[in-house]
Amino acid sequence: MKTLPVFFIVSALAFLSGFATAKDAMEFHSGTGADRIFLRGPESGAQVVILDEKGGDLTREVEYSVEPAHMATVDSAGFVTPLANGRGTLIAKGKNGEVSAALEIVDFKNAPPISFPNDVVPVFTRNHCNAGACHAKATGQNGFQLSLLGYEPKADYEQIVFHSRGRRVLPAAPSHSLLLMKATGDLPHEGGARLDKNSADYRILKQWITSGLNYRPDNDPDIEKISIFPKTAVTKPGAEIQVAVTAYFSDGTERDITRLAQYESNNPDRILASETGLMTVRDKNGNASVLVRFQEHIDTLAVTIPIGNPVDSLPAPENFIDEHIFSQLKLMGLPPSGEVDDSTFLRRVTIDIAGRLPTIEETKSFLATSGADKRAKKIDQLLDSPDYADYFAGKWAGILRNKVERGRPWVHRDSHAFYAWIRKSLIENKPFDQFAGDLILASGKAYENPAVSWYRVVKDEKERMENVAQVFLGVRMQCAQCHHHPYEQWSMDDYFAFTAFFSTVKAKNIRKLPEENIYHHNRKAAVMKQPLSGEMLKPRLLGHEESEDIPPMVDPRFALADWLTEKENPRFARVLVNRYWKHFFSRGLVEPEDDIRPTNPATHPALLDALADSFRDSGYDLKALIRTMCNSATYQRSSDPSEQNINDNQNYARYYPKRLQAEVLLDSVNEMAGSKNSFQYQPLGVRAVSLPNEKGTTDSPFLMMFGRPSMDTACECERTDEANLGQSLHLLNSDDIQKKLSNGNGLAASLAKDTETGDKEKITNLYLRALSREPDESELQMAISHLNKKREAKAEREGYEDLIWAMINMKEFMFNR
Amino acid sequence: MKLNRFCPGPVSRRGFLEVGGLTAAGLGLSDFLRYEAHASELQANHATNDNSVIFVWLPGGMPHMETYDMKPDAPMEYRGEFGPIKTNVPGIDVCELLPRHAKIADKFAIVRSIHHEFSDHGGAHKRMMTGRRPRIPNGTVNDAPATQCIVKDILGGTSGSNGMPTCVATMDKGRDKVDTFAMGSAYLGAANTPFFVGGDPNSKGFKVDSIGVKQSMEARLDDRLSLLQGMDRLRRDVDEGGIMSAMDSFNSQALEMLTSDEVRDAFDLAGESDKMREFYGHHTYGQRVLLARRLVEAGSRFVTAVLENPFPGKAIPKNCASNWDCHAVNCHVFEDCKWRMPVYDQAISALIEDVYQRGLDKKVMIVVASDFGHTPKIKASRGNKSKVMQPGRDHWPKAMSVLVSGGGAQMGQVIGATNSKGEHPIERVMSPNDLWATVYQHLGIDYNDYLMNLDGLPMQILPFGKPIKELAPMA
Q1: Does the distance separating the beta carbons of B257 and A725 come in below 8 Å?
Q2: pLDDT confidence of A670, banded at 50, 70, 90?
Q3: Residues of chain A found within 8 Å of residue B233, distances taken between Cβ atoms
Q4: pLDDT band at B209 (very low <50, low <70, confident <90, very high)
């Protein structure tokens, strides 16, 4: 089916050969193919795109003419509108030459019959009648309901033609149809006047009503795909890019839909899209993409906006990461910052791997060590420490939703066991495919197999499927539960067929306590009902055409786990490496890190693939992955920006600082104050990073305020580093913080008691503790003079409290930079 | 202006709020740039006015048949001990325990037909607070944001120029937690929970933590800030994401709040005359709603006043309950009412009168609601505390009464009705969402608008519900 349009282009080219003049370097393209324009019917039109030899857009700079002139007009934006049938030529004249293309117009007098799905529904979409906030709301709007973005044309047709006793359309007097009178605002319409009576959209609706409200003419073709031209562009700030979009039909025809499609920029800071397919590049360099959508079909334009500074010297690449990053920096013209100093590196890598500040001793010894491999050794040492497992177990406990909810004490025990199970996997460096498989296949009681805790919290099969898709595949299926996914290929059938893999998991109730449940395969055939069609769907893997044939005796989760972790499944490794990349590099190659799809392109697609390949080839070795990342020269850039790279936020020309995660921040504040955490069912002084479940969040205003997740979703986005007023009030003036600082066993108290150590040493140690560096002379003096002032007021201890207070409020402390 | 929005798919919530759907509304580039330059104007788009709400919450459930929905003709085991009294509006009766209400019935409206399906306090709290049916029918941890949080998210954390917190929730000490009354922000994040004020505003030592600086700390905070200013040298432009500068700006907002006389004064009831404090009554209920009135006057937009124990710190009589949950196991429902209602009557009627007196009745809407009503049929059980058989009423979400005052609406009316035994609505059957739609309309918030959940799915502020038409603001 996909070959048809290609045949068509080939034959069209044969027919047209000779029209394009070869002497110049201009390239012609239109929404009805390269080198020709074919229009059918009075409402048709086509967008012309003219590029120079470097791919720059000349569309609005050339002069257009048509021969014979009565056939069509071309506006200055390059849009062709038919005036009469015939064959002729379109000529685009530029400063350095011209280019021409064949023009053919048919059926100008007798418009082709209107198709409801292909012509009418797009009118609704274009005018936002079927937007989520309007008639496509779950409840419709004032009794009139359309499917979201027209994904269910048949239902829309019935709604309009038959519902409300057919009062919406009036074939006897089409312009008095409710549909039209509301849309034009002639009758009161909450959505206002959406359609102009002189518009093509109005004429399409009216003609459809006039011609007898047919669903679709005989042999009405379906759209098989749409295609945007160009697909990539390297451009500069302030430039404009005209695109042309083609729809390819099942009967081999194609149609220009440039002005019928919708456009969405993924990054309006960098590029803005208009309804006519004209993109405006803004004054920010970097990468962006524009999604084009027509019916359920999508395509994207990827735009690169280089900054263009000379990149004279690049550090020697440590590994393949650097090769990818540096070549992009060269392309973008973004000179990287220098190498990070030892102090900052140690603090950075210790926080990132072990979730804590380096101790004073660690810092001193690291700074005193020499040797080219000292950083690599430090990375290994941290990865082998239990702190690594604590920290990452917390990360995974959140994603895998280790909640106790309103559980009794023994649910807490289960959640501790699940946390310990995750932590042990990390200590042992269990291959990640095995980890995922063990989780998905978990059966039994939480006592014996803690991984079933996931099934306890993630209760229904749909949510289980959604969580697995998001966590292990980076696919967000949620949208497709109610309608075709607006950004992806997934349909409702895909959603429910994929859910069917979990349809046989059953919780066997023992003693009526949910925490005693035994999870098992229910030995029935796996099926899931598609609620719209009512069809019982057998399990089908994402992207597969065929369903799996699984006998009732076999747990369908085996097929799921096998497919998930098989080497041929590119998504599994990709989402994991992207997730970890974000952890270490502050932003994902794809953002958000667990939403990987063609319409959300990576900033460095080749790097993402290379990382995934390397992870897969290592046998899904998590520690090896972290080693690769942390040893790269890219990770070891300074975060200090240069004038050239100060605005960079997606090319890794420097390290992007990130705020310490809530738990790490709380532990670090305790470390500075010499105070201890206290949590229910936890030993006094437990580190916040090793809290297993969501109670840590709900019981601690600090952790909640600073964005520790409540584990309500599998989404990384639940953890947030956003600033808020509560954080400021808490750090600046809360009793909680003041109590930590003034606690009698705290650091301030012991510093005040210690009369043997000199001020300089004490302050130096505070700096080493907080920032892994020594204070400079002016910092030292500032601190000493504050201490002296307090000593004079006989409040030396307060002096230390103030000093520590100021340190925990410093951005240098709160950020990993 | 109204922004139409697509089902926007997985984009960040903030990004969605800022740019989502601009093209849908047909805005051109210049409009977009204008919007971007004044990102905060988008918030202004939602807030078409500076109206505010005082939301009085009665946890445990106000017994509708001892307050605003009297059924004197119902059988003995339904109608209870108390009779109705006439009010200054012919045709409207209230319970004989509410004589002050009776004098001002022209200044409030009673809605008798709101109901829902959740009969556990937790589920009912979540149902009422969020405008959504909770996934779990018990527990008070929200799976969707409470109205307070939505209001804060849309209107911003502080309102006006004086740094007043937009949303404040006041309740007894120890009850001032996000989840106690299902005021959690769920997917809107911790930043959007209301500003909690726990404590008894009737007590002498009442003081609001984090508003104002303790005297002992005042000089030190200055010292600390100058120390911090000297020490905190990291250049902010290393953080392209802008979190550092956002923190700086929240710090200055926080300091403004901590040190602003206006904010401190708003939280300080000493600013009210003795006469006014007397008028509201020297009890927790009275002083708490007085505080609420002070706060909205100073610029807060949504103040929740939770009324539980009318006399915290004093012993609760054996046959009375700490809150409104008047089961027989908890209390003797009639004795509890006799103990509680005079205080309630004074507090609410004083609040209403005061708001009208000050000419705030268009700007301020007072809403009094609870998790549910209580069973129309009286049931006797042995009281846990009293150890004797006593009458009580159980949980009853099928019927309840809600009081609304002000908001520029027609007062002196009863909206909806329950059947002859007060069991379920038979006229103008409504859900809690209709109440919230009325409240959002009053605040100038488009309740059809969407907020993103963490899955990137657009969640309508109210999935259903329409403003109560009888309470539309009068022209």
Answers
A1: yes
A2: very high
A3: 812
A4: low
Locate the DSSP E strands across A318-463. Answer: none
Give the domain-ending residue among A565, A585, A600: A565
Contacts of B230 (CB under 8 A, 6+ apart): A782
Asked if residue A761 and residue A673 are part of one domain, the reply reads: yes
Domain match, A687 and A798 both: yes
Please indicate, yes or no, whether residues A71 and A152 belong to a single structural domain of this protein: no
- Span A400-429, pLDDT tens digits: 999 998 777 778 889 999 999 999 999 999
- Burial class, A793, CB count within 10 angstroms (exposed 0-12 / middle 13-18 / buried 19+): exposed
Q: What is the mean pLDDT of residues A681-702?
A: 91
Residue B141 is nearest to which of A133, A698, A733, comparing CB atoms? Answer: A698
- Distance, in Å, from the CA atom of B52 to the CA atom of A216, rounded to the nearest integer, reads 53
A484 with A554, same domain: the answer is: yes
CATH, range B13-21+38-211+267-471: 3.40.720.10
The ipTM assigned to this model is 0.79
- B-chain residue closest to A483, CA distance: B7
Q: What is the DSSP letter of A412?
A: H
**Best residue of B455, B460, B464, B466 to probe chain A, by most A CBs closer than 10 Å:** B455
CA B215 to chain centre: 31
The pair of structure tokens assigned to A733 is: 């003036």
Number of continuous H segments (helices) and E segments (strands) in chain A: 29, 24
The 8-class DSSP code of residue A340 comes to: P
- For residue A761, count other CB atoms closer than 10 A to its CB: 11
- Verify that A12 and A87 share a domain, yes or no: yes
Mean pLDDT within B227-232: 90
Q: Please give the tally of structural domains in chain A.
A: 4
Distance CA A234, CA A305 (A): 6
Domain boundaries, chain B: 13-21+38-211+267-471, 213-259
Structure tokens at A219: 């042999």
B158: chain A residues, CB-CB within 8 Å? 725
Radius of gyration in angstroms for the set of CA atoms belonging to chain A, rounded to a whole number: 32
Q: Are residues A674 and A793 in the same domain?
A: yes
Question: Which of helix, strand or coil describes residue A632?
Answer: coil
In-domain check, residue A77: yes
Listed by number, the residues of chain A in 461-480 with a beta carbon closer than 8 Å to a beta carbon of chain B are 466, 476, 478-479
What Cα–Cα distance (Å) separates residue B448 from each residue in A150, A171, A532, B367? 20, 33, 25, 21
Regarding whether A780 and A682 lie in a shared domain, the answer is: yes
SS (H, E, C) B89-139: CCCCEEECCCHHHHHCHHHCEEEEEECCCCCCHHHHHHHHHHCCCCCCCCC
Q: How far apart are CA A632 and CA A621, in angstroms?
A: 17
Strands (E) in A657-786, as ranges, are 658-659
Four-CA torsion A320, A324, A326, A328, nearest 10 degrees: 180
- Condensed to tens digits (0 to 9), the pLDDT of residues A338-382 reads 999 999 999 999 999 999 999 999 999 999 999 999 999 999 999
Residue B389: what are its φ and ψ, rounded to 5°?
A: -65, 135
* Host domain of residue A443: 435-565
Same-domain pairing of A204 and A93: no
Instruction: Judge whether residue B53 has pLDDT over 80.
Output: yes
Helix axes A374-383, A342-354, angle to 10 degrees: 20
Beta strand B379-382 with A244-249 is: unpaired
Select the residue of A485, A734, A817 nearest B238 (Cβ to Cβ).
Answer: A817
> Tokens 């440590």 — which residue?
A318
